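User: Structure please.
Assistant: Input sequence and predicted structure:
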Amino acid sequence: MTERAPVTLPRLAEMKEAGEPIVMVTAYDYPSARVAEEAGVDLALVGDTAAMVVLGYPGTEAVSMDEMIMLGKAVRRGVKTPLMVGDMPMGSYESSNELAVQSAQRLVKETGCQVVKLEAGGIAVERARAIVRSGIPVMGHVGLTPQSINTIGSFRAQGREESDWGRIEDDALAVAQAGAFSMVIEAVAEPLARKLTGTVPIPTIGIGASVACDGQVLVLEDMLGLSPRVPKFVKRYGDLGPGIEKAIASYAAEVRARSFPGPEHTYPMKGKKP
């Protein structure tokens, strides 16, 4: 692959202006980070969805800052070109501007991510503004916000009734005015996502939103068939799960039959043929 220059915030702004689609994918460990690097994506998101697809939690609420930092450190070792985004987990920013800034600083210092992401709306807008003022770029997140699932009630699409549009539009505009450089729009009715992309001056990254968004993001495990259940908006670009299970089952069968390891997999004494 031709060597690319590292992706920067000015580059993302240029892409929006030029109508050049932005590609973001999640990465939660060194192998997935290397894949993202080699595939040539623009942004690698160490998202709190790792709570479910990597760590086995039922939702995103349980993941800790220590766990996000552990995952982020691994990703940093694997990515060089994509802009690395660190997700702020629930409980790391809500209570005060001071906590939000301290958490963002810790995430950047300990993982090496260049920017942080937090679910925006309500008081979180003020937290985003404080983080931006501290010198750390912020990506917002509007629409379906998984950390607020207990308030929303379920993982359902947002903005399917026009009466809900005002709240989501207000959140998106507030995020942009707070100084965010970009925002994720998740599970929002297509006409609203299209409208938001044409309204806010910063790049929008859709997930279950609209092809008109400035970019798209998917969870790597979802798109590769490694998650048992995936949302409607996910397209599976691979079905690796069954192949991995088959490979491990074959290995187990050979171990139990004592046919692995064979002579070609072991080491004879020096000077003797295997």
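The chain has eleven helices and eight strands.
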